[in-house]
What does this fold into?
Amino acid sequence: MEASSETNAYAALRAAILSLDLVPGEKLSERGLESMLEASRTPIRAALMRLENEGLTQRAGRGWQVTPIDLAEVRAVMEYREAVEVAAIALVIERAGDDELTALRSIIASSPGKENEETGLRDGGDFHVALSQLSRNKFFADAMSGALTRLSRTRWLEVRTAESRAHARTEHVEIIAAVQSRDAERAAALVLSHSRGTRDRLLNHLSEERRRLRARGYSIIESSETPSPLGTV
It folds into this structure.
């Protein structure tokens, strides 16, 4: 029962952070989370510690807070993601079956224009993780999943317009088409262009909206030292 309570508290708190219902920098108290999550303090504390390992919460004195958005970290994670995905795509071209690539292309090309911010964010992340899984290398898939988790809050801000979601979908289809053609050079170039375009849009948006977001209570910082992208040594 305790394990189930911890899992439920973790999932609910994680969803609230990634969807920005709990904003970057917001103070968290175990007592306050008890009523919000309808859970006791022990599973809440365990959930906070799990989220700390993902870089989504951090200690704040004797309490906790939602980790601020760190622009230096965003840059570092995007560099890390780029290196992982370029390496993974080469293995995908070697190892993925035609039927697998056709299935993935069908999924991302279906129901264009009908998604909202939540589904746009989820579908985009699912695409990149699924693509990396086709490399048949678990470490690439895990690395991609971890990087996207660290970027989820900033990506949420970027997918709020239908135009940005349609742009991402188009680029995903182009990447899959290159992989289906077994064109390693083009696939790598498209992955690089997509990754760097996403990075530039994210950072430009945060830079342009920084004052307004701060007025809404978002904590956006620029650390002097870039932390490890996935909270590892």
